[in-house]
Specification:
about 55 residues, 1 helix, rod-shaped, transmembrane, transmembrane helix, membrane
């Protein structure tokens, strides 16, 4: 553990940035997954509707 206050602050800052980065990455992944699911469902729905209409 760093004994100098300056080092302690630097460590906290780095840790804070790391946490923020992880949170942002998780949010991006959630958005991408949600978008993918919506797209897949939409494509499948359209596919079923079109296939159902033509046959």
């Amino acid at each position: 553990m760093p004994s100098v206050p300056g080092e302690r602050m630097a460590t906290d800052k780095i840790f804070g940035i790391a946490v923020e980065t992880v949170v942002v990455v998780v949010e991006v992944v959630v958005v991408v997954v949600a978008a993918t699911v919506v797209t897949v469902v939409a494509v499948a729905t359209v596919d079923v509707v079109v296939t159902g209409a033509t046959t």
